[in-house]
Amino acid sequence: MTHTSRPRFGIMTAPSQVDYHDVLRVWREADAIAEIEHAWLFDHLMPIFGDPDGPVYEGWTLLSALAAHTRRLRIGVLVTSNRFRPPAMLAKIATTVDIVSGGRLDLGIGVGSRPGHALARREYEAHGLPFHDSAHAVASLAEACTVIRRLWTESEPFDFHGTHHRLTGAFGNPKPVQRPHPPILIGGRSSATLRVVAEHADLWNIPGGGDIGDIIGRSALLDRYCTEIGRDPAAVIRSIHLPVSYDRPASTRDAIGEAVDAGFRHIVLGLPSPYPAEAARWVADELISPSA
For residue 220, how many C-alpha atoms fall within 13 Å in the half-sphere facing its CB? Predict the structure, then answer.
């Protein structure tokens, strides 16, 4: 995507420390507001903020429910932990959501939680999931993207013998609505992850709210990696997640302006809970319209 294209704004509602009906209310409201074009959940099995024993909903199950209650928004999980689900299973889940939504899914995926994030790390042991080192996780992600794309697009069963994933007679039926397949968004900032982004992603997402200079540097590194493998860097849409302040909308607008000036055209506005009444309309009026 070129830097001259207009920004596309969306929201992210972390399905933690909230009730299902709170999230549903915001998404249904956003679905009726043209300025909001996409909506996202996150993928954690236990809280990573607030009460550590508080509620969390499983992201993909909730996404399918929200897909059935919306008609226009593009939808996704920002981002799926590749550590949680085998890629062939994730491909099947994502296909189901794409069909339920009528072809509105963006597949958000990443390596999984940072090793140093204690609240996120505990969810692996609590659910009997292995937690491998970062090199293992990045290599696994690259293989997962290959497997998922093949399951979405190939018409005959195939075997896959990777280092981290092995499949025999793999086949995906039905196929997603979107052709050739739903867009793949990869989230992350490490140089190793950015190499996977350059090879596999249609969109790249990075957390914002910090040093914009570092974010610009990460984007430039992605440009370099794309060039090294013969891919046009502009083919990877730049996406950023920005935390929203209800009390200080001007600071959020400033962050949006910095991101847009840096070439980010896919803006995800993270809404903290509890959500105020008409939260989506507030986002459109206070954050998107003044920034457009």
Answer: 7
Domain CATH for 91:
3.20.20.30
Percent above pLDDT 70 for the chain: 98
On whether residue 240 sits in a domain, the answer given is yes
The neighbour count for residue 89, using CB atoms within 10 Å, is: 10
By residue range, what is the domain housing residue 145? 8-291
Environment class of 271 (CB within 10 Å of its CB; exposed 0-12, middle 13-18, buried 19+): buried
- With a CB cutoff of 8 Å and minimum separation 6, the contacts of 97 are 60, 63, 64, 67, 75, 105
Q: What is the pLDDT of residues 38-70, one digit of tens each?
A: 999 999 999 999 999 999 999 999 999 999 999
Tally of domains within the chain: 1
In a domain, 39, yes or no: yes
Tell me if 3 is assigned to some domain. no
DSSP 155: S
Nearest to 18, CA basis, from 245, 207, 272: 272
Model confidence pTM above 0.90: yes
The DSSP output letter for 271 is P
- pLDDT for the residue numbered 291: 84
CA distance 102 to 116: 38
The answer to whether residue 193 is domain-embedded is yes
Using CA atoms, how far apart are residues 292 and 288, in angstroms rounded to an integer?
6
Rounded-to-integer distance, Cα 2 and Cα 226, Å: 15
